C-alpha cells in the first residue's frame, strides 16, 4: 500500500432536512469512521467540504464530506484529492445504492454511475471512474415511487432499527479495504449477505 494519504469520501446532502434520508448513507458511515479516528470534521477553507485528517487502521487518511448537494460533490472531492495529492486509485467513495437490497454492502473499483448523480459528478471532476466504491444498499422504491423521491425519504421504522449495525458494518468494510485491499474486502463482506 502507498505511504501517502488515502481519501475516504462519504456522500450525502447537507442540512437538517436531509439528515436522516437514504441518500445520506455515505455521511452516516463517514461519521462512524470519524468516531473511530477520534476526531471531528472541520470545514476546509474555501472548499465546500468538511474534512478530518488522521489515521485509520494505521494509515494516514483524509475523511471528507462534501457540503454541496450530492450532484455537485465532484468539485470538492477533486479539490481535496489535489490538495492532499491523492491519486484516483486511493480514493474511496461511500454511497447509497438503489440496486442493492437494504443494508447490503458491496465494494468495487470503477464502473458506471448507475444513475447516481454524486458518482457522476465525482467521475467528471476526477476525470475517471477508477476510484473505489463502498456501496450501501438502500433497496428499490416500492411500487411506482420515483427513485429520485425515494432516496430523499427517511428510512422506514424497521430499517431505522437495523441501521446502526449496518452502518458499522459498512465502516468495517472501509477499514478492511484500507488495510487489506479490494479483493480481501470483497471476499469478506460479499460473503456476509
Number of strands: 7
Identify low-pLDDT runs: none
Q: Output the number of helix runs.
A: 6
Query: For the record, what is the CATH homologous superfamily label?
Result: Peptidyl-tRNA hydrolase
Order of helices and strands: EHEEEHEEHEHHH
Strand content: 15-25%
Specify the helix fraction band: 25-40%
* CATH topology (fold) name: Rossmann fold
- Average pLDDT confidence is 94
Largest sheet: 7 strands, mixed
CATH architecture: 3-Layer(aba) Sandwich
Shape: globular
The value of Rg in angstroms is 15 Å
Strand order of the largest sheet: 2-3-4-1-5-7-6
CATH class: Alpha Beta
Number of domains: 1
Explain this structure.
- The protein has 193 residues and is α/β, with parallel strands linked by helices.
- The protein has a single domain, classed as 3-Layer(aba) Sandwich (Rossmann fold).
- The chain contains six helices and seven strands.
- Strands 2-3-4-1-5-7-6 form a seven-stranded mixed beta sheet, with helices on both faces.
- A hairpin with a 5-residue loop joins strand 2 and strand 3.
- Helix 1 crosses helix 5, helix 2 crosses helix 3 and helix 5 packs antiparallel against helix 6.
- The longest helix has 24 residues.
List the helices and strands and how they pair.
Layout: E1 6-10, H1 25-37, E2 42-43, E3 49-56, E4 59-66, H2 74-83, E5 91-97, E6 105-109, H3 117-126, E7 132-137, H4 147-150, H5 157-180, H6 182-190
Could you give a quick summary of the protein structure above?
This protein has six helices and seven strands.
Overview features:
seven-stranded mixed beta sheet, 36% helix, 193 residues, 6 helices, Rossmann fold, alpha/beta
Amino acid at each position: 500500500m502507498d505511504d501517502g494519504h488515502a481519501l475516504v469520501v462519504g456522500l450525502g446532502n447537507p442540512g437538517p432536512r436531509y439528515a436522516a434520508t437514504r441518500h445520506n448513507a455515505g455521511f452516516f458511515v463517514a461519521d462512524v469512521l470519524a468516531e473511530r479516528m477520534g476526531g471531528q470534521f472541520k470545514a476546509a477553507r474555501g472548499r465546500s467540504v468538511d474534512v478530518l485528517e488522521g489515521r485509520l487502521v494505521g494509515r494516514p487518511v483524509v475523511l471528507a464530506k462534501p457540503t454541496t448537494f450530492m450532484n455537485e460533490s465532484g468539485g470538492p472531492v477533486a479539490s481535496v484529492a489535489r490538495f492532499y495529492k491523492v491519486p484516483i486509485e486511493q480514493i474511496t467513495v461511500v454511497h447509497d445504492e438503489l440496486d442493492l437490497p437494504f443494508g447490503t454492502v458491496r465494494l468495487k473499483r470503477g464502473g458506471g454511475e448507475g444513475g447516481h448523480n454524486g458518482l457522476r459528478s465525482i467521475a467528471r471532476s476526477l476525470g475517471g471512474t477508477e476510484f473505489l466504491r463502498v456501496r450501501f444498499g438502500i433497496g428499490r422504491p416500492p411500487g411506482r415511487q420515483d427513485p429520485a423521491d425515494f432516496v430523499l425519504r427517511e428510512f422506514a421504522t424497521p430499517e431505522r432499527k437495523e441501521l446502526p449495525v449496518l452502518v458499522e458494518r459498512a465502516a468495517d468494510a472501509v477499514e478492511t479495504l484500507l488495510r487489506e485491499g479490494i479483493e480481501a474486502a470483497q471476499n469478506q463482506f460479499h460473503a456476509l449477505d
